[in-house]
Specification:
Length: 150
């Protein structure tokens, strides 16, 4: 069996790797292991390390000089490379998960019932900014508690 490390394989592995973190946020946000593995930021940091490695592969590879971020055409050229495209996908997975973690923490701090948070978490996972937008509306239901004086 030949398991060559390809962008397609890494894409599939990254998608599979992020699902348990989202499931923990959805069904067991206060569980000890969710706090340890997900809410601590450890899971997104693993995705960030994968992102950094993929960027390194891209920029040290034969297509490293192609593309950039200065124009839409440069971004399109960058993402024609499957390694850079996979890195971009890890970027989305990492940052969407960070937003989901923030939503859980913020909702808990505000006393917002977790059942109300679930649609926002699902949308954050599937279509990041729309989930964030929904959560921004939901958080208006419960104002933030006043800071505790030190």
């Amino acid at each position: 069996m030949n398991l060559a490390l390809t962008p397609d394989l890494l894409f599939s592995l990254a998608n599979a790797a992020v699902l348990p973190a989202w499931l923990l946020l959805l069904v067991a946000p206060r569980w000890r292991f969710t706090r340890l593995l997900v809410r601590s930021g450890a899971w997104p940091l693993l995705l960030a390390a994968g992102y950094a490695a993929l960027l390194l592969v891209h920029y040290l590879g034969p297509h490293g000089a192609e593309g950039g971020f200065g124009s839409l055409q440069q971004v399109a050229a960058l993402f024609r490379n499957p390694w850079a495209l996979t890195a971009g996908w890890l970027h989305y997975l990492c940052f969407d998960l960070l937003v989901g973690i923030w939503e859980v923490r913020d909702a808990e701090r505000r006393g917002l019932p977790h059942l109300l948070l679930i649609p926002a978490l699902l949308l954050t996972f599937l279509v990041g900014p729309i989930g964030l937008l929904l959560y921004a509306g939901l958080r208006q239901l419960r104002p933030a508690p006043a800071p505790v004086a030190a």
